[in-house]
Specification:
The protein has helices at 65-69, 80-96, 112-119, 131-139, 151-160, 179-189, 203-208, 225-233, 265-276, 282-305, 317-326, 377-381, and strands at 4-6, 18-23, 27-28, 43-44, 47-51, 57-59, 61-63, 102-106, 123-128, 144-146, 166-170, 195-201, 221-222, 238-245, 251-257, 310-313, 333-338, 355-357, 368-371, 391-394, 401-404. The chain is of the alpha/beta class.
């Protein structure tokens, strides 16, 4: 079964001027969990490329979107941090854009964010390709269309619903193969004074924190301010402001509009910052690739040096890249605990580590716990007390380290 294809040209500009940054080897897709230890899996090349023409960082292989997203196992409401950030996100946009009355969210998942808007009197509509999760949202009275958003679906929405004042796409733009159709859809639904809020894992944060574990098949693109702005400009959508986000280990929310607005001072400063850091250059990306390989080797040494059993916490998609790249399998980790019930009882892709329900009492005292969902490390560590005497291996961001509760 062929579920992927390799690209020869940039998905954004069509250039063949693509340069290899890092090869993370062939791996199963991150969220394709297996219920049977001996079940065969399909591995896909996981290579990061840089287009030296339009400066967009992207994967070398495209996996069929229906294979990836039609049944999904990440639920936004699983994480307390994610839920709290949804509340904060609403308050920020509410303060910034007081005229907004209606909200459309692309890839709305279980409706966690839209629920916060609805509480405050906004009209809301969600779109999500995962039928299982869209059904869950609809059962909880968050109106959700089950499907992949594109230009065609935007025409359906514009006929059946009023155009929204605010369109939100949080951590979805990097996922889509047919990205030009998506942005045409945004343009089609955008009012003259409408706002489009795009949240994405920021390339600078990935490079600074050596977050190579965020490279997996669902994320086709790794955008900077410059690369995503250039793309949206093709469709007469212009950035005018941004905010920082804690999601994914360092994201930004970039605000676009159809009418050209004055850029905020901090957006202008970010443009200068990227230029000074030489963010959108081949040499910077190549250095990131070299450091990532060295980091992997350092983490392997730490894992080999600790005495006793090692347990995992957080069977996140990013953990799949880390586990496979470092070759930490079921012989290395006893099991991985995760609060997401949709993952419990399954095995991790490629490495075949059992995912179990969170129960801190399952882990013997003075054990080693590697926090694979390290972007939620504070939330995770706070679930244990001093008497547990655990050592926490924190792989990222930056150098891997061992932490003990004081």
């Amino acid at each position: 079964m062929k579920i992927y294809k390799n690209i020869k040209k940039c998905r954004i500009c069509g250039s063949s001027n693509l340069k290899l940054i890092i090869n993370l080897n062939s791996q199963p897709t991150a969220n394709q969990l297996t219920s049977n230890f001996n079940q065969k899996e399909i591995s896909v090349p996981l290579k990061l490329l840089f287009c030296n023409t339009c400066k967009t960082t992207q994967l070398s292989s495209t996996v069929d979107s229906k294979y990836l997203f039609s049944k999904y196992v990440w639920v936004t409401g699983t994480s307390d941090v994610a839920k709290k950030y949804c509340e904060k996100f609403v308050l920020i946009t509410r303060k910034k854009f007081r005229d907004v009355k209606s909200v459309l969210e692309i890839a709305s998942n279980d409706g966690t964010l839209l629920r916060e808007y609805r509480k405050r009197g906004y009209r809301v509509l969600g779109v999500d390709p995962a039928k299982n999760i869209a059904r869950k949202a609809n059962r909880e009275n968050i109106s959700t269309i089950a499907g992949f958003f594109d230009f065609k679906l935007s025409k359906y929405i514009s006929k059946k619903f009023d155009k929204p004042d605010l369109i939100i796409a949080r951590n979805v733009i990097p996922h889509v193969e047919h990205i030009h159709s998506i942005i045409r859809g945004f343009k089609n639904l955008s009012k003259k004074n409408g706002i489009i809020a795009i949240e994405f894992h920021y390339l600078y944060e990935i490079i600074k924190g050596l977050q190579y574990d965020s490279i997996y098949h669902e994320h086709l693109y790794y955008f900077s301010l410059k690369s995503i702005s250039k793309l949206f400009k093709k469709y007469s959508l212009y950035p005018f402001d941004y905010d920082k986000s804690p999601i994914s280990g360092g994201s930004i929310v970039l605000y676009f509009s159809s009418n050209k607005r004055n850029k905020s001072k901090k957006l202008k400063n970010l443009e200068i910052f990227e230029k000074n850091k030489k963010l959108n250059t081949l040499s910077t990306l190549k250095t990131f690739g070299d450091k990532s390989r060295k980091h992997r080797d350092s983490l392997v040494k730490i894992m080999n040096s600790v005495k006793g059993n090692v347990y995992g916490y957080g069977a996140s998609a990013r953990s799949s890249t880390l586990l496979n790249f470092a070759k930490f399998n079921h012989n290395k980790l006893k099991f991985i605990m995760d609060k997401n019930k949709l993952k419990n009882g399954f095995f991790t892709p490629g490495t075949k580590i059992k995912i179990v329900k969170f129960n801190k009492n399952k882990i013997p005292k003075s054990s080693n716990i590697i926090i694979l969902a390290w972007n939620f490390r504070k939330e995770i560590i706070n679930q244990f007390d001093k008497t547990s005497k655990h050592k926490f291996i924190i792989p990222l961001p930056g150098k891997p380290k061992i932490y003990e509760i004081q």
